Each structure stands twice: as C-alpha cells, then as structure tokens.
Amino acid sequence: MSIAYMRTLAPSCRSQKSQSASPRRPRLFGAAAAAAAALYLTTVPLSARETVHEHTRVIDGDTIVINKERIRLKGIDAPELSQTCTKGTEVQMCGVQAKDAVVQWIRDADGDIECEGQGRDRYDRLLATCKIGGKDVGGRLVEEGFAVAYARYDRQYLPQQERAKRAGLYELFLSVHMVFS
Fold first, then answer.
1. Which of 11, 66, 67, 80 has the fewest CB neighbours in a 10 Å radius?
2. pTM (predicted TM-score)
3. Is 123 left (phi over 0), alpha (psi -120 to 50) or beta?
4. pLDDT digits (tens, 9 = 90+) for 42-92
C-alpha cells in the first residue's frame, strides 16, 4: 500500500523577506497542501494509486497481466476505462469501477489468482477463465453488474447476468453497452 506524506520547506530554504513578511503564509500553504493531498487520496481510483500485486496488473475490467502475459477474461465484456454510464443526471465512471473491483478482489486474496487459458483473441491475448481465491472473476463481475455476459462467444455467464438484472445492477451499464458493443 502506498503512503502519502508531505514535506514542507525548511526555514533555511525560504528567503528572509518571506519569513518576516508573513508568518502565517507557511502554515496556510501547508494546510492547503494537506487538503489537496487528502482530496487526491479520496478521489483518485484505487487502481490508479497502487500496484495490484507483485506480478499482476489490471488493465481494465476484463483484461489483466500476469507475469507479462496479457489475459482477456473469457465470456464477459466490461466497459472501457474511459466509458461513463448515466442514470438520469447521475454520471459514473463504470469502466474505472469495473477495474477497481478486480484490483480490490486481487488485493483481498493477496494476489492469489489462477487462470486457465483457452486460446487467443485477435490481439494475441490469452483467453482465460480466472479465479481469485477460488471464485470465478468473470462470473463475479457479471453477477455484481460490472460486466455483461459476452453471449456472442460464450454463454457461460448468462445465468449470473439474469440474477444481476433481477437485482437491478444493470441499470447504468446496459444502456451504454448496447451503444458500444
């Protein structure tokens, strides 16, 4: 986990004029910098701040890299990182949310991820079913509403998608997916 810290300039690094002119200025600057750091740490997605695991990187909700091998999760389609989803006037970064979910699951399992390859896609990524802590990643993404079943190539996750629809998890993503699929 990364640790953010702030370092203020030592008095010897400041000019004499600024020290005597306004003794509050360094304190105000320090407070503003601390507030900016706190805002960064609460608004920047988890996946953008930290490495997932020593040999694992998450590219987006349906693509990961393990030991330099690019892996495409088979049977699902997650939104791209830049993709947003809307419901009424509410806009969400659904692509970032899907990626962050996978990042968190890998962290929670201390990097315990296993993938079984089943061919390659047109971008030479390994098509695979992956499990984190024994649970199917693709199925979990679909079931929790972060991805849709990619029935064009694999019908394996359609039952999870139906359960998620009944739970109301697809209100934001499905309308976007229909436009971009």
1. 67
2. 0.64
3. alpha
4. 444 444 434 456 789 999 999 999 999 999 999 999 999 998 887 778 888
